[in-house]
Amino acid sequence: MDFSQFLSLLRARIWVFLATLVVTVATTIGISLIMQPQYKATTTLVFDSKGMDPILGAMLPVQMMPGYLATQVDVIQSHRVALEVVKMLRASENAALRAKWTQETQGKGKFEDWFAATLLDKLDVKPSRESSVMEVNFTWSDGGAAAAIADAFAIAYQRVNLELRVEPARQSAAWFDDRLKQLRTSLEIAQSKLNNYQREKGFTAQDERLDLETARLAELSGQYTQAQAQAADSTSRQRQVNEFLTKGASGETVPDVLANPLVQNLKATLSLSEGRLQQTRSQLGANHPEVKRLEADVEGQRAKLRSEISQAAASLGQAAKIAQKREEQLRAALADQKTRLLKMSQGRDEMQVLMKEVESAQRAYDAVAQRAQQTNLESQASQSTVSVLTRAVPPVDPSFPKMFLNILLAVFLGSMLGVGVALLLEALNRRVRTVRDLAEAVGAPVLGALGSDKAAVKAARGWRKAKVKKSLVPSTAVSAAAVR
Predict the structure, then answer these.
(1) Of 47, 253, 355, 370, which has the most beta carbons under 10 Å away?
(2) Cα torsion at 262, 267, 272, 275 (round to 10°)?
(3) Residue 192 predicted with pLDDT over 60
(4) 248 SS3 class
(5) How high is the pLDDT of residue 174?
(6) Using a CB cutoff of 8 Å and minimum separation of 24, what contacts does 116-121 make?
(7) Which residues pair with 40 in a beta bridge?
């Protein structure tokens, strides 16, 4: 079918086409008038993509990525946010909504879940592609209610978003509190062990006795070395005296005896006395009383010298014994000091171990305490990264149905439907309306068309195509009338 055939068909079925168009438009207008108008309110949110953490003071990472925005869209459209909106609106106190819930669900389930699902069906969230702004659209039969619910979704999302940030911090804070109690107990136990040990052993963290005992050990060691030398010297001198005396030598020949100052004085005095005795004897004679007195005096001095020599020799043995005893005493004191110093060093080592345990427990406690303080501050955060850019304004005109748009769509669809109905009727009752229709009907070419009066045209339009056989029409047939 060419365009001329289509136009002729449409002219012939014009009333069917118009009737279909009118019915379609009228039906659309009627339905649009019957349908309850719906109003759409929009609240816009803006996300803080970067900033400084008020707790840690660090820069927050960039969050404005497609995955993050898609996640936030899912959060806004989540059942949790919808339940928060239901609580904010106090929908459970609305008798009409409860009656509708009872009618639709026969009282099964929870009213809050049912109304939350109803709200989510009316919610539409659209993130911006090139910015951090997001639209929260809500459609409802009342414009004021639509704006209020849209704002409620924005506020509920802010709360849920903040809770999603705070809840992990609260859980971490609780864990850190328990861990902090354990570390505090461990620290107290370690400190108690250290205090008890210091009390038992007499040590302190700043104890200087180890240095004093070390100095005492050095002093005793020096004294012992000196005593050893003195004892060896005294023993050698005593041995020398014993050898002289064993050989029958006089004590006067012993060098140590001769070195005695008293012996030397007595010998000098004796020499002077003997000289005077010899002089007096030569002058007065051997039996003179003065000579006798000088002889007695010389004899007394000799006896005294012998006594002093014996005492000097004996004193060498006594000095050797004293030096040996002093050496033994210093040896024992030195050994005792070494033992004491060793025990003190061991005690200090054990105390150092306990002090290290206390320091380790203190460091662990301080680290956990610092982290626990941070998590506690994070768990008490009240600032969200989402802000309401613009609140919803109650719409004046409904977003659905739109009468003008519906009429345009109805005209278009009615026109298409009218054309379809006309083609269907033409297919069921095919008629010859043009020269091409005649040629197609008889299966032979049309040589010409005669006349152009309206009667011939009407006669030509009255022909039917159905069941026309080629054998009944000659191949040179010519139409009897001009066909438009």
Answers:
(1) 47
(2) 170
(3) yes
(4) coil
(5) 83
(6) 116/79, 116/82, 116/83, 116/85, 116/86, 117/79, 117/82, 119/82, 119/85, 119/86, 119/149, 119/153, 120/77, 120/79, 120/82
(7) 139
